Amino acid sequence: KGRPTASHHLNWKYSYFDPEQLTAAHKTLPFGTKLKVRLGPKSVIVVITDRGPFVKGRHLDLSRKAFSKLAHTDAGILKVKVEVIK
Question: I need a labelling partner for 80 at 20 to 30 A (CA). Which of 18, 27, 56, 60 fits?
């Protein structure tokens, strides 16, 4: 298990960060919110499980697995389209 997520008090399967899960961090969206994240023709559905990012100009942090569905993990920062689906 990785470090506890900000949602660990909910005692659910995403209580600990796992880079191999399709998860993301957002500053204000409720925990459990599902997002469709798109980059061109590629997309991935993620669940908000943590708070962040706390870097100016960034709005969403994706897990390594979620990021890899959109681009090579060495790509760095991406401009993506995000849609709340649930």
Answer: 18
